[in-house]
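User: Structure tokens for this complex, please. No commentary.
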Amino acid sequence: MNDTHFAYNRDMWDGYVARGNEWTTPVSPETIAAARRGEFSLLLIEKWPIPDDWWPPNLAGCDVLCLASGGGQQGPVLAAVGANVTVFDASPRQLAQDRLVAEREGLTLRTVEGDMRDLSALADASFDLIVHPISNCYCPDVLPVWRECYRVLRPGGVLLAGWMNPCVYILDFFKIDDAGIIEVRHKLPYADVTHLTPDELDRMRREGTAFEWSHSFDEQLGGQLAAGFVLTGFKEGRDGRNLEAEYLPTQFASRAVKPPLPS
Ligand SMILES: C[S@@+](CC[C@H](N)C(=O)[O-])C[C@H]1O[C@@H](n2cnc3c(N)ncnc32)[C@H](O)[C@@H]1O
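Assistant:
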């Protein structure tokens, strides 16, 4: 991503916070109180709470990185469960939502601002778990993300990731939004910045919409494997609020493990 695109998306996410987008809305005191009792449910993809056997056996005391996961959601919940949480995100206002919940609830968590492709602010082998909800569609290349995830996880550490089905990007999103029409328009790999007309890009800027990139299965699953991970779980899902979800799965979740050191 050139710096212009990174800065554009950072500012768009700051704008989503100002407008109260659902992925920027902090969890309630009731959700935190329940998490303190060990009752919690988090999503990587729509309508599919992360199952018990995807989590490490004991989250209390776990070093957890919530990657591109600001908004006062996953981070504070996992902190309330007892994990040592770092939330990493591009958007200062998204990270402020995490600090807001932490201060409101007396929780401790660390926030780090940056680009998910460069986790150099985080030490090698310093996390047991990474929670990475759908967000790499806002980044042009994901292979550096998987390499960095591998580096910062300890051997035996777990990577839980959500990501978009690349096939949805063949569709004309303006036709879906404006007229409820499903029409194939784009060739993959897709990027807003290369596939849309200048007028359409202006519309995105006016409406405050972040730019997206499609990522193939080669990049998502192949990229995790190439980084050294072992895949241990996979799930497809549909965001039922979107018309295209009537036609195909729109989102995927994966569980991967950095192999433990030989004993
Ligand atoms: C859909 S939100 C995900 C967070 C949310 N808490 C959730 O439950 O899914 C996408 C997040 O990715 C972040 N983001 C976008 N591009 C990024 C980048 N290059 N590096 C780090 N974070 C990025 C945004 O600021 C935003 O907080």
